[in-house]
Amino acid sequence: MSPAEESSTAVVNPTSEENSAQDATAGTAPLAGPSATPVQQVVQAGRFPLRLSPLAALAVAVVLVLALAAAVTFGLMLQRKAATDRAGAEALATAKAYAITVTSYDYQNLDRNFADVLDGASGEFKDQYTGASQTLRQLIANAKATAKGTVLGAGIQSASTDQVQVVVFVDQAITNAAVTQPRIDRNRVIMTLTPHDGRWLVNKLELM
């Protein structure tokens, strides 16, 4: 081999070895750029997820506790509102029916009339009606009077789960032995109702 050929070979061989080494390295090195996986990108960039500091962890815990407390409070508020709405609806229906009971009577059936009124009453109103019933009974019987109540409208004035106040507008058509054509009395009645053994009873009644 001539000196020129040896020189050429010496120049070529290192380049080949470098290329081989680069090819081998390229086969094992992590990919860079868009083709690299997220893990590879993080490793190449030298960025690793950091653990939360104690202060940050405490802040996260406080936020979670507050969020849970808010959710529980909101849930309880919804439950209370639903219970109050249900109580109001039940008491309103009771008041409308009771308004007819307390404004309707027939001198020929007073025992039943008075019993029905007392059955729906409690507390202050029950005591008042019981005390006045004997005199009222005598007046109705002597006049041979009848009355029929008709509810024109009703609404809730205030409501909670243990007391509901209802306003009822009721007409009372009254007749007696001397007046055969019904006389219409228009009344506004305010009833305060309280729950007793699963029922709403009228604790207070005011004619306005």
Structure, described:
- Helices cover 55% and strands 25% of the residues.
- Helix 4 runs antiparallel to helix 5 (123-143).
- The chain contains five helices and five strands.
- A five-stranded antiparallel β-sheet has the order 1-2-3-4-5.
- It is α+β, with helices and mostly antiparallel strands and 208 residues long.
- It has helices at 3-28, 38-45, 54-103, 110-119, 123-143, and strands at 105-106, 146-159, 164-175, 183-196, 199-207.
Amount of beta strand: 15-25%
Task: Please state the structural category.
Answer: alpha+beta
Q: Give the fraction of residues assigned to helices.
A: 55-70%
What's the mean pLDDT score? 81
Order of helices and strands, N to C? HHHEHHEEEE
Computed over alpha carbons, the radius of gyration is 45 Å
Widest sheet: strand ordering: 1-2-3-4-5
Number of strands: 5
Distance between the termini: 133 Å
- Note poorly predicted spans: 1-33
Q: What spatial form do the alpha-carbon principal axes imply?
A: rod-shaped
Count of separate DSSP helical elements: 5
Sheet with the most strands?
5 strands, antiparallel
